Structure formats: structure tokens, C-alpha cells
Amino acid sequence: MSALTFWPLAALAEMLGHPFMRHALLAGGAAALGSGAIGFIAFLRGQIFTADALGHAAFTGALAALVLGIDLRLGLYAGTLAVALGLGALDPRGHADDVVIGSVFAWILGLGVLFLALYAGTNNAGNGAAGPAILFGSIFGLSAGQTWLAVAGALAAILVLLAIARPLLFASLDATIAAAQGVPVRALGLIFLALIGAIVAVETQVIGALLALGLLAAPPFAAQRLVARPFAALLLSAVLALAAVWGGLTIAYAVPRLPPSFAIIALAAAIDLAVLLPAALRRWRRDRGTPAIRRVL
Amino acid sequence: MNGLLEIFSYHFMVNAFRAGTIVALAAAMIGWFAVLRRESFAAHTLAVASVPGAAGATLLGTSATGGGMLFCAIAALAIAAFPRGQSARGFSEEPAVIGVVQALALASGFLFVSLYHGLLTGTNALLFGNVLGIADTQVLVLVVVAIGALAALGAIARPLLFASIDPLVAAAHGVRVRLLSTFFLLLLGLAAAEASQIVGALLVFALLVLPAATAQRLTARPLTGLALSAALGLAATWLGLLLAYYTPYPASFYITTLAFAAFAATRWSRGVPPWRRHASTSQACEEVA
């Protein structure tokens, strides 16, 4: 009986006993809090697609750094910040058109392929795992230094977000009235784009450039369905992201064949589905009489 | 001149040109509608949804093409389940849904590849394609699917154009806007799945968005725009393949760069001024109605 009661605690202690697990939980937790909060405002502002483009810019930036032989993280941060500000400059209202984003985005991916090919041709390419590690993250392989860099990056992004949260939320919900009230809408838009860039760079080290989008999009979706007040929803979004990352890491630790990035994204998506379920059930009960084909059409 | 003909003495180059031509044509025309409907984010997501499909099918030992199509169709239906426009709280949920679908698709692809114990570079081939390694049967499949997709697009083109330009008026005229947008997403998904088997998820996206966006900058007329989009896609693909043959860099890089250069050029050229574009868009709408 006592063994059963203490089993979870003992397992937890064992899990936390591994330095790689502590690093993963720390870096992953910081990245999750940042991306849940920043993702919520990105969602309100309709900038999820921008976040996706920045995720791919992270990949291209990191590979460019590898080709040039400089530090990978430098390329990561430089790539996402440069593309974020570039997208901001393309549109005076701080909201680039989705066709412009898509076009820049497609070309960034093309550049990524070039750098991948160039890097594969260099002598320091090693076993060719750098591409997948950037694309899908290597959270169980974080060193102490990488962990602290990720935590510092995420904390800085969160602090800046908190500092500008009120006017930013105002500008996001109604840009015209905010501008009339003297809120610097344009500058806030640019700062926010840089924040998305920074958090994507942090996330790239944790769950990878291609999956960064998941943590920016999934928790806000669930949060805005559950809570109407913006600040409460922002907080809930950060907490849900944290739950997805810590839960996902625990699952991946328990089931070694599961890649941690997959467990995290799958859990985040499962939270969204669970939030949708009650409404879907209600709709199903209401429409039970009508044939399914009518409901789709 | 001699060197130019020499390319076609290699069978893999002939097949690359054949596949590239078909993919460029189908992607440019379907992409024209995707850009008009502001669905480039959905187009990208559907293009990458073929990655887990192909990887999962390889894991189960079945057809990678079939798996890719199945996953793209599922992703298209998942996106279509959340209607566009504003939710009750005043903002659109659609981008978040597309984002979750995309991240989940890529995460599943990563899972399947790592379960398969395949080489880690397998993901690179899925994402970035291998345009120089195309077999004759794949070209045949591409032709058949492209013709089918373009025929289906042709069949719904007029109501789809109407519904894309003004969904409210179209719905008032009895056009089934919701059904059309679901059908179009399915079409987009199937075309993207098919093409990404050959040229990679990335290149399909570039060919879907870049030529179409350029064409829409230059003309608002639907038929001229479709033709221009197809011509731009073809030009970028052929030139990109030629450049890739003579230099050590990948074809995908050249194709996306050429297509992006054309798009950027229209930004700094005068093109169609916004007010004229609006005028002709409403004209096109009246013609359709």
C-alpha cells in the first residue's frame, strides 16, 4: 500500500535526478510560458501565420550560421529577428498581408534548402543530424549553457511582453481607437513581431523550428474558448502551454520510443480537442435528427 | 546549344522536366485560387501534411502516395470544419486551427520517421524533395492526378470565383459557399500531396503561392491571371532545373528564388494600382454573377 502511494513520488524523484531531464523541464517550461502568452496575443492580432514564417526563418538562420561556421544560436536569433522586422517594414500598419508573408516565407524555405545543401557539402557536417535537430528540436540533449540561454531568452521576452501588455492588447483589439488615444500602435506592432521572433528562436532549441508553431497556436485556441477576459485568457494560455510541455516531457521520459517534440505537440493538440468536445457534443445532440450530409452542406 | 541538348540525353533530367512541368502548371492554377481566397497558410499546411502521410505509409509498408493523399484529405477536412470569418468573440479561429493541424502533422511525421529507424536525412527528402530521382511511373501518376484536379477545378471555377470574391453575395445567389470551400481545400490537399511526393512539401508551397501572387499583382482578370500564373510557374521551374543542372546547388533553391524575384519585381514596378484592381475585381464579380 505504502509502495503504491509513494510510487509516483519516487518516480518523479528519479526523473528529476537526471540532469538532462532537469534541463529539459527548465528550458521547456520557460519556452512554454513565453510562447503561450505571446501566442495568445499573436492569435488576437491574426499573426499566427507570421509566427509560422518565423519558425521557418529560424531553420534557415541556424543553417546559415552552420554554413558560415559561426555559433548556431547567433544565426537562430539573428534570422528570426531580421525576418520579423523585415515583415514589419513591409507593411506600414505592422500587419503584413498574408500573400506577402507567404511569398517571403516560401523564399526563406528555398534559402534553407540552399544552406542545407551547402552545409551537407562542408567537412564539419558530421552525421547529417543537424538538419533534423534544428527542424524537430533536441530537448533531451540540452547542455546547462543552452538551458540557461533558453531560459534567459524566454524570460526577457516575457518581461518585455508584460511591460507592453496593456497598450498592446488595446492596440490589438482596436487599433484605430488605440491610435486616437495616443497609443504608439506601429511601434508596438514592431516590438511584438520581434517578440515572436525571439520566442520562436527559444522554441527552436526546445521543440524545433517546424514545431514551434504548435506551442504558439494550440494553447491560445483552447484558452480563448474557455475564458473571455483577455488577461485571464493570456495567463491560461501560458499555463496550458506549460502543461503540454511538462506533460509531454514526462510522457516521452516514460515511453523512450516517443520523440519528446511529438509528445508535446500531441498533448497540446489533445487539450484543444478536449476543449472542443463539449460544444461538439451539444451540437451533435441538437442536430441528431438531421442527416449528417445536411449538416456538412 | 550543344550543351542545352545534352541535358535531355539524361533520362532523370527528362523526367525532372516532365514532373516539374506538370506540377508547376497544376500548382500555379490551383494556387491562383488559394491566393485569391487568402489561403496561403492553409496551402502550406496541406503541403506539409503529406509528410506524415508518406512517412506513416512507409512505416506500414504501403503506398507513400496513398498515405500522403489520405493525410492531406484529413487535414483539409479538419481545416474546413472551422468556418472562416469572425467567431462570436470577434476574431477568426481559423489560423490557430491551421497552425495546430500543421504542427501536429509535422510532429507525427517526425514520430513515424523515428519509429521507422530510417536515416534522419529521410525527413529532408520528404520536406525538400528529390526532383532528380523521379521514375517514369511517378510521372504518369502525376499527369493523371493533375488532369483530374484541373478538371475538377474547371468544373467549379465559376461559382468558386464568385464565392471567393464575395462570399455573402454568392451565398445570397444560392451558391453553396461552405461546400465549395471544403471541396477546394480537398482539391488543394490532393494536388499538394501528389506533387510533394516528387518535389518536396516546400517546393509545392512555393509553386502554389509565388507565381499566383505575382500574377495577381499584374492582372485582376481571372483567365489572364491563371494563364500568367501558369507561365510564371513554368518559367521558374524550367530555368531553375537548368541552373541546378549546371551548378552544384539544389533546384528547389533556384525555383523559389526565381519565383520570388518575379514577385519582388512586381512590388517595385508599378503594376496594377490598388484602385484599378478593386474596380476590375468588382467587374469580374459582376461578370460571374
How would you sum up this structure, described in words?
The complex is a heterodimer of chains A (297) and B (289). With 297 residues, chain A is mainly alpha-helical. Chain A has one domain (11-296): Orthogonal Bundle (ABC transporter involved in vitamin B12 uptake, BtuC), CATH 1.10.3470. In chain A, 82% of the residues lie in helices and 0% in strands. Chain A has 13 helices and no strands. Chain A has helices at 2-17, 19-44, 48-68, 72-90, 98-121, 130-136, 144-173, 175-180, 185-206, 212-226, 230-254, 260-286, 292-296. In chain A, helix 2 (19-44) packs across helix 10. Chain A is globular, with a radius of gyration of 21 Å. With 289 residues, chain B is mostly helical. Chain B is globular, with a radius of gyration of 19 Å. Chain B contains twelve helices and no strands. In chain B, helix 3 runs parallel beside helix 5 (94-115) and helix 7 (136-165) crosses helix 12 (274-288). Chain B has helices at 2-7, 11-36, 40-60, 64-80, 94-115, 122-128, 136-165, 167-172, 177-218, 222-246, 251-268, 274-288. At the A-B interface, helix 3, helix 5, helix 6, helix 10 and helix 12 of A face helix 3, helix 5, helix 6, helix 9 and helix 11 of B.
Largest sheet of chain A: none
Write out the CATH superfamily name of chain A. Answer: ABC transporter involved in vitamin B12 uptake, BtuC
Going by CATH, the architecture of chain A would be Orthogonal Bundle
CATH topology of chain A: ABC transporter involved in vitamin B12 uptake, BtuC
- The percentage helix of chain A is over 70%
The domain count of chain B comes to 1
Total helical segments of chain A: 13
Question: What proportion of the residues of chain A form beta strands (DSSP E)?
Answer: under 5%
What is the global morphology of chain B? globular
Largest interface: A-B, 59 and 56 residues
